[in-house]
């Protein structure tokens, strides 16, 4: 007789733990199954250690504006890399410990530290044992991609799984893949003294679809370290180092960071034993509002579904999957307005719909270049651009993209506004303090206002 | 025959210039009258130079966390004060020049650089000339208060009118008055090496009505320089310096900064020649939604009305006054949700209704202490608290007060939400990225949610 539970959650990462929080409200009959290292991708090798590294690099980089401010002695500042890495690891451990708080208190009956494999839609094999579950949640996360062609250089290739573990940093590095992870880590390492070359096969960074924003980001970040865009990187060993070629350029480096994306952890789950539909990437077809896989008793949440691989979305998806796993009727939940942030300098953020999803003839694009923005000038962070996309007919905000100081904060204002269906005109009635970076958003909104089909005097809109 | 115009604006500061922008849309028959130095209080001696000084001080202060990050050599950093002050003045001049852009292009018929005085409700005397105006806008701003009792020490007393002009800073200073200006400048000077003593006769800072927030701010800032609260400062000369006594404490300082507030510039306007009502402070009684003084043809906007002496409010009031001065029917305009920010570290911000305006029995107070907030910990800025006030019955947000990192940004999210009448539950449906300071607000909102009379499962609220 297999063991029987109401719910089995495969994966104790962020999505799995959020699912667990919902499941526990309704039943004690559950198992959480994880055969890897506990502590979540976010805390162990993702959001958290990268932000610590970025903070150290930013604080060190800031010395470059000291002279204009009358602060002397910047040239004598040095980073002790092993000390800096230890700081990264110390804080990382603090954050990992917090996530372990949940699993630390779970008994052996609820937490199974092993891999799970589907035998059938309602039965898993875990460590030789069969577990039958009324509902099963797949939340197995993802793994960094390393091209098979790089195998000969494997010893010199790092991913985020390894980089935060280093006691010292290489002197030179190629960062291949300039999405959020590559840009963040590449810039941080460059600022800490590593000779970084950034490479991506496409002509943009951080997946930006707006070339005005992308061009500015590439120009600003490209001043700190070379960015080679538009050609695939090829690796070969050369005298114990790696020669990285890209188009007609090449560089010999000590190490290569593979930041080419992450692959869903699905291959060992035994999906072939299920009668569920897979998409062309091999990912179970699911409803993003219910997280249900087809009409099955299986749910899928977090990075493993390869959509919106972000902590806050994993949390949302986990909650929805967990809720639906313990309620009779499957409920559909609203998705949040898209919000993506790359914590490089300038910050890059995208909110809501992007240019490649919009019909440019139907939208007004409100733009502000940060050059003269007062507060940005004071902060010496006035290389930036922010673009808001609004429906030309009525001013409703649809999306935004930006590469600028404090984009992480401006993006929240915009995401919250878009989620509420607000218009350019609505936002211009809000208070914008002075002198703050939010005034740049105000300027972009005024710029959009002038392009709308509706010609409204702003002051009129504030009449009681 | 007196000269006749449609509109006379007295004061070419922020409020006056915003009024002008509205007036110009309807008529060319106007005069802008200003007998002082042009360039706005904000740009010359207010928001802008103070933010530059704060930025330099913050960048220098940041060296204190270098050691934990592995950055060596912080002890050798020094500030060259004359260089730093020159930087403040250079940027200040840039900002002043921008505001002069408007008046630089005005001819002598439109810009009168002289003082104005009311002879009657529709007639001003300017430089011996009479000007009759259908509508008159008072936008004369304010002046720092210096107690009469300090006259014997006058040579050692500075205000914001003088401090940004200094070529060097004093070695010691008492900052009397710990509202926004005193706190901002006091902390900045302290960080730049001036031995600062902060003094206020009341037991709070930055006008905080919430003692939890106030206590934290006082404790955090009080670690950088002494704060003497709750007794009036008395000044007397002693051996060429100033002895400042406060309760049973005293200190001898080179200079005193009077940051006790600002007095409306009304005394030379000849208000005694008008039949308008004045309040008990001598300020014309006006409607804050129309900016009209009584039923007269006079409007009053900006710092001179002693309400919300903030740039963005002066701008709003100026626009409203200007609009109403050139339209037949007086229109009432919505006021913006209150938003006040003190740019000290931690930032202090108040939004909407404050505790002393609320009935504590009817509200839920959602609180977050920043100690464990991930991003704040990474930034080494995790000394902070944020409190949101919500209607207990339905969760509607009423106000907030905070002393924490990035309060300036969080306050915008909150002000915009309050202005829209959103609830705690509404906000918790919004995206909160990770790891960002906005997550602290999320935690405070969850804390408030648990105290509401309505017991709603958050996840349920997101159902489609």
Highlighted features:
homodimer, 24 strands, 7-stranded mixed beta sheet, 3 domains, FAD/NAD(P)-binding domain, Enolase-like, domain 1, alpha/beta, 464 residues
Could you walk me through the main structural features you see in this protein, from its secondary elements to its overall organization?
The structure is a homodimer of 464-residue chains. Chain A has 464 residues and is an alpha/beta fold. Chain A contains 14 helices and 24 strands. In chain A, the strands form five sheets. In chain A, strands 1, 2, 5, 6, 7, 8 and 19 form a seven-stranded mixed β-sheet that branches. Chain A has a five-stranded parallel β-sheet with strand order 10-17-11-12-13. In chain A, α1 (14-23) runs parallel beside α9 (311-325), α3 runs antiparallel to α5 and α3 (47-61) runs parallel beside α7. The first copy, chain A, is globular and about 75 Å long. Chain A starts with a strand and ends with a helix. At the A-B interface, α3, α4, β3, β4 and α5 of A face α3, α4, β3, β4 and α5 of B. β4 (78-79) of chain A pairs antiparallel with β3 of chain B, so a sheet runs across the interface.
